[in-house]
Amino acid sequence: MGSMILAAVRKTNNIRLKNKMVISIVAVVFIPVLLVGLILTASYRQNVLDQATQQTMNNVDKIKKHITDILRMPIEISNKLQVDDRLSNLVNDRYETTFDLVTAYWDFRYFRDSVQLYKEIDNIRFYTDPPLPISNWDFLSADESVKNSNWYREALDKSSSFIGWHYIKDETKENRAYLSLVRRIDFPLYRSNGVLVINLDQDELNGILSQEPFDTMIIDEKGFIVAAKQPQWVGRNIESMDFAKDLSDRRAGVYDFHYEGKPSKIVVEEVVPPFSRNGLKVISVFTIDSIVSDANRVSRLGFTIIAASLSIAIVLIYFTSSFLSRRLLLLNKVLNKVSMGNLNVKSDVDGNDEIGTLSRQFNHMLASIRSLMDEVSESHRQKNLLELRQRDIKLKMMASQMNPHFLFNALESIRMKAFAKGDAEISNVVHLLGKLMRRSIEIGDRKITLREELDIARCYLELQQFRFDDERLTYELHLDHSAMSVEIPPLLVQPLVENAVVHGLEDVEEGGIVIIGTRVESDRVVITVEDNGCGIPEGKWREIEHSFQDMEDADEHRIGLRNVHQRLILTYGEGFGLKLDCPPGSGTRLSFSIPLGGKLHV
Q1: Alpha-carbon torsion 425, 430, 434, 437, what sign?
Q2: Judging by DSSP bridges, how do beta strands 121-128 and 139-141 pair with one another?
Q3: φ and ψ at 534, to 5 degrees?
Q4: Mean pLDDT of all residues belonging to the chain
Q5: What is the model's pTM?
Q6: CA 460, CA 453: separation in Å to the nearest integer?
Q7: Is residue 282 within a helix (H) or strand (E), and if so which, with residue range?
Q8: Comparing C-alpha atoms, which of 282, 238, 235, 242 is closest to residue 259?
Q9: CA–CA dist 115, 125 (Å, integer)
Q10: Which of 100, 402, 491, 500 is the residue whose CA sits 20 to 30 A from 587?
């Protein structure tokens, strides 16, 4: 898995920077924002839809309560008539004259009073069979059309005494249809019955639905619309409406339909009044688009803003990446020139960003490389010059040697004769001179120990003591014996001792001291040669110190010191050169350090 991810990451290295930035903005910004927008929009739409559905269900529930309140009044009227003796006597008594019957009709005012008293009631009529001698608008004889109607037969069904709710025509109202209570009224005393029909006021029913925000209707069990927000729907069968086919058979709940060709929600609630064999249904319809239109508008606005932002971002990234690519190409051209060996170039890419910083660091690196190459070249030049001078010195020494064995033998003969004559001092001096000459002649390119180097310096000092006597010159050795076995290039200490005697004590008539010291400091051995002469003026001191670096300086008084300084640098590096310390009136001190063990640090 890790290797696959690594391989995929490596493949991105082959994509141009411009394309990488565009892909990055799409992957890191656009896609997440788009996904978040889609999720939030979907959540918002669903939330709005759920709220609308819940609100519709609440509204339908309120409609159900209002309808129940309206239906309660005709039920109460029918209950009273069920036990009303006046109605029983009126329907079942036999009147001698028509006048008596008309008078009885007129005296029975309950139907008319109820219609006037209760706005929910539009009309009340009572059907009898056998027929009455005379009918009016309140009491009617059931003709064949009435007897054959479903509602009439259901009302007379002996197996049920429940109330029925039907959408039926009223012949006393020009055959207009009404939602009506239909109930059989029994007269046990006379062993007869009749059918009571109470019409509900259509305007009252429609008024319940008029304030609803969505299309709402009430249907009976056969699917007839008995009330609706849109009055033109009243009287139609819901099965004739495309969006509501089979809806009359649905139980209470929320259903998905297509209304006017649009996805919609339909809320169905059943209303079954007390003592009723059947009931009504309240149906509310709303299109989803009408509910989520605001959410869709917000979504379109959001996606428009996202698209505009992405377009602007892509344009900005395109120009920014083009600018970055152009600067990188300029830097790449300079790199190509450097790769071909041309170090005399300079990157002109400016700015304080990462590319500008890289350009400046690249220029600084080139300057450092050129400086290092100049230093290496100068170091090689100085080394070659030093080697030429050393070869010249060796040639001069070889020219002056003239059979060194002859000189050693002659000096040894002189020493033996002086010793034989009892002059031990002369014998010792000649021995030191021979030893010094032999060591100087035998030295080549090989390293010697610090002990051997100090032995040469001691021989030189003792010869100078013989020359100037002990009152003018003495010397001291302050040695760290743990450093005596360290190997160093030959003739590093003796030239410093010679400089101290010849120049440092030049004006000292008596009491001159040369001190040679060695000590170990951390990983270095420090070697010092100091005298108690008059010292060197600061201006002269700085001039001498500067001359250590000048290979062209021909002053013979400085050749020895410069030779030591250059050999130390060539052998051990820049930090190991000769150091000069000349406090005014306090003598001169020359020092240098070498790595402990004599290992090269170059």
Answers
A1: positive
A2: parallel
A3: -80, -5
A4: 80
A5: 0.50
A6: 11
A7: strand 280-287
A8: 242
A9: 11
A10: 491
- The residues, ordered by sequence, that sit 6+ positions from 540 with a Cβ below 8 Å of its Cβ are none
Q: How far apart are CA 333 and CA 326, in angstroms?
A: 11
Question: Are 446 and 559 in contact, with CB atoms under 8 Å apart?
Answer: no
| Residue (of 348, 344, 346, 352) closest to 327 by Cα position | 348
Burial of 184 (0-12, 13-18, 19+ CB in 10 A): buried
- Which domains can be identified in the chain, with CATH numbers? 53-291 (3.30.450.20), 443-595 (3.30.565.10)
Asked if residue 173 lies in contact with residue 296, where contact means CB atoms within 8 angstroms, the answer is no
* Other beta carbons within 10 Å of 160: 12
592 burial level (CB within 10 Å; 0-12, 13-18, 19+): buried
Which alpha helices (DSSP H) does 157-201 contain, by range?
none
Task: Give the position of tokens 């924002």.
Answer: 33
* CA distances (Å), origin 307, targets 296, 302, 304, 312, 456: 16, 9, 5, 9, 91
Residue 179's φ and ψ, nearest 5 degrees, are -75, 125
Cα–Cα distance measured from residue 438 to residue 410, given in angstroms and rounded to the nearest whole number: 13
Instruction: Please return the burial class of 225, using the count of CB atoms within 10 Å of its CB with bins 0-12, 13-18 and 19+.
Output: buried
Tokens of 65: 């309560």
Helix, strand or coil for residue 134?
coil
Instruction: Give the amino acid at 344.
Output: N
Torsions phi, psi for 192 (to 5 deg):
-140, 175
Strand segments (E) across 136-230: 139-141, 164-170, 176-187, 192-200, 215-219, 225-228
CB 273 within 8 A of CB 163: yes
| Secondary structure class of 69 (helix, strand, coil) | helix
Residue ranges of the chain with pLDDT lower than 70?
1-2, 4, 7-13, 17-18, 20, 22, 45, 49, 160-161, 242-249, 290-295, 386, 389-413, 415-425, 427, 431, 438-445, 469-470, 538-539, 541, 549-558, 584-585, 597-602
Nearest residue to 167 (alpha-carbon basis) of 153, 179, 154, 149: 179
The answer to whether 249 and 285 have CB atoms below 8 angstroms apart is: no
pLDDT digits (tens, 9 = 90+) for 138-168: 899 888 889 999 999 999 887 766 899 999 9
Structure tokens at 505: 């004590």
- Residues 25, 313 contacting (CB under 8 angstroms): yes
Q: Tokens 């259901």 — which residue?
A: 154
Kindly report, residue by residue over 28-79, the tens digit of the pLDDT.
777 787 777 778 777 776 777 677 777 777 888 888 899 999 999 999 999 9
The SS3 call for residue 448 is strand
> Do strands 473-478 and 487-488 pair parallel, antiparallel, or not at all (unpaired)?
unpaired
> Whose structure tokens read 């839809």?
49
